[in-house]
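Students often ask what a holo structure prediction actually looks like on paper. The answer is less mysterious than it sounds. You provide the chain, you provide the ligand, and the output is a string of discrete structure tokens encoding the 3D arrangement of the protein together with cobalt (II) ion.
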Amino acid sequence: MTAQLQLQVKDLLQFIDNSPSPFHAVRSMEQRLMQFDFKLLDEKQKWKLNPAGRYYVVRDDSSIIFFVTGEKPLSETGYKILGAHTDSPGLKIKPNPVNSSNGLIRLGVEVYGGPILATFTDRDLSLAGRISYKTSAGEIASQLVSFDQSILRLPNLAIHMNRKVNEEGLKLDKQNELPLIISAAVEEQISSQFLYELLGNACGINAAQILSWELNVYDTQKGAFWGDEQQFYANSQLDNLASCHAGLQALLNETTLQSGNTLVCAFFDHEEIGSESTKGANGSLLPDILQRIALAMDVDTEGYQCALARSFMISADMAHAYQPNFPSAFEPEHKIMVNKGPVIKVNANHRYTSESISIARFIQWCELAEVPYQKYSHRTDIPCGSTIGPMTSAKLGIRTVDVGNPMWAMHSIRESAGVEDHGHMINALHCFFNAK
Ligand code: CO
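The corresponding structure tokens follow.
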């Protein structure tokens, strides 16, 4: 394995470690974009864009679209779009979360999307997200918050009280068995104020100013390489921050930035809960921004429609790698192997958007990049997952392919994947962005 491949994954692991919530992931990306002179655009203002300009838009702090305007006419080249998502399944803190009983303070949580709940037990957990508060001038302001150290835990029940755990699996009652221990209760404490004070101290504001929050639980364990040759890696949120990072790396490259094409990376929050929100992939964000790019480049309505018809989208989301301990879970002729290249996802019921032409084009970019590729089909007797691909392609009429890198343990709090695949995906996306 080359040092270059290792470095790319090292960068990915740092990116994830700095991104404990979708809000932080967007902020991490903004920091990278600013280093490459991307300018922030405000949706509330009118835009004037120049060819070969670098811009980005953030909607509600956790969805981001960054783009490069092409020097080639938009109506003749269309948009080259990469879509992915910034959120991951897990636990979110309730509005009135504090429960003080039996000498312990616990925080109540809701389940966000479809995490493997058992993996949240016995981990060094903490909190990250966004708070909104009233400033001393009476205005509403928001800020990101995260606790670096572990402050929460979901201790398992000892096997002595759960004798069948290895035969029947760890089942957790969502209402009663998920609250997270955060403190030993102190009698004079007003328990309902407990979290307000903790957040106020972390943000340097008065607890009484805090009005609301969106906080998710994250694992403080840093990303790591593993395997005898360190050919694998593990971290939280590989689904789907690994795809966001691959897109970022493929676009932030001098050759790509100067390709003359109109390139768009659209990374959405709320994929894990169906994408229906103001900033989700099934909302107005992507159509709004594509249209505004055209308007600000003086492309008329018909020119915009021509551009859409000439566009191509890659929907990148992680794929299920074969795990030999569980052979019956996989379709025998579609075993996806880690470190054997990006995966093209196919589903007859269109849970994935790929069709023969979009597949063929992705294969061509892989061949140009000298990157291996694999084709995935889910078992016929197990329901298939989906991605943002079907909804965005339906809304915009843009030809789309669903791809993603192989990974193990999707939706575990500690997922893993192959080092070589990350570099392969970056190279394939690089060819896509630079294609004529
Ligand atoms: Co995903």
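Residues 85, 239-240, 271, 317-318 surround cobalt (II) ion (CB under 6 Å).
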